[in-house]
Design brief:
Layout (H helix, E strand, L loop, with lengths): L17 H5 L1 H31 L17 H24 L20 E8 L3 E10 L12 E3 L2 E3 L3 E8 L3 H7 L1 E6 L3 E7 L2 E7 L3 E13 L5 H7 L12 E7 L1
Pfam families: Hmw_CFAP97 (PF13879)
Family: Belongs to the CFAP97 family.
Length: about 250
């Protein structure tokens, strides 16, 4: 009768195969790679040896030169002649002394005696938009314009840019100083009184009539294009699309 066998643990070592230990496929690839390197090195040594023995590959003419034009000598002579003439001209210019003909008419410099004023416009106090230069009318002084720094009050699209100022002193000043203006052209700088308060206007188009106004000056032709930029911030009812600040300076 066979003895009874209970549960056991197989603690024998696993079977080892040659492929798991030696990895024959990798060995074959390594050997092939070594033979490839050896073969390429031999070919390289053959080429180097041939270059040292024969100065390069066979059937190569190392004395070959590009064919030059038959007219190259003539062009060289012409170039040297031009260079000689240029040097002679330069020496003549350097030896020449500067002279002034007193009989020539002198250009008179016309000084701009008419006072000017400049208005710098800013968007949100950090972005400079433009500068308008205004020629003041005769009899209008720079101190007469009571503007400093402030916020642009209104911009009526295609009509007016309005800067609000202080109040007038009396009705007598209003009658003596202000009048009805007709055919006010584009770019005109006007002071107008509405409800006892002064407003400085810059016309963005030609206006037929302005009541209780005084002509102060005109925008110079070089600043006319900047009126379109100011007009782009306006609206139909005068509300500015962005807050525009101004600063008055002397031009």
């Amino acid at each position: 009768m066979a003895p009874k066998v209970g549960p056991r643990i197989d603690n024998r070592a696993p079977l080892m195969f040659v492929e798991n230990v030696l990895k024959t496929s990798k060995l074959v690839r390594d050997v092939e790679r070594q033979w490839t390197i050896v073969r390429e090195n031999k070919e390289l040594m053959k080429r180097i040896n041939q270059i040292y023995r024969t100065k390069g590959y066979l059937n190569v003419d190392y004395n070959y030169r590009v064919h030059q034009s038959l007219n190259s000598a003539a062009r060289g002579r012409k170039t040297r002649a031009i260079e000689y003439q240029n040097r002679a001209l330069l020496s003549r210019l350097l030896r020449r002394k500067a002279t002034v003909d007193s009989n020539l008419p002198r250009e008179r410099k016309i000084h701009h005696l008419q006072p000017r004023m400049a208005l710098d416009f800013w968007e949100r106090t950090d972005r400079r938009l433009c500068q308008l230069t205004i020629d003041l009318c005769p009899g209008v002084s720079f101190d007469e314009i009571t503007l400093g720094r402030g916020k642009l009050f209104r911009i009526y699209d295609g009509t007016l840019a309005v800067i609000r100022a202080g109040y007038v002193r009396s009705d007598e000043d209003l009658r003596d100083t202000y009048d009805r203006l007709h055919h006010v052209e584009r770019g005109t700088f006007v002071k107008q009184v509405v409800d006892g308060r002064e407003y400085f206007l810059i016309t963005l188009r030609t206006i037929g009539t302005l009541v209780d106004g005084k002509l102060l000056g005109r925008v110079v032709p070089g600043s006319m294009e900047k009126l379109d930029l100011i007009n782009s911030y306006g609206s139909k009812y005068g509300r500015c699309r962005e807050t525009i600040y101004f600063d008055r300076t002397k031009a």
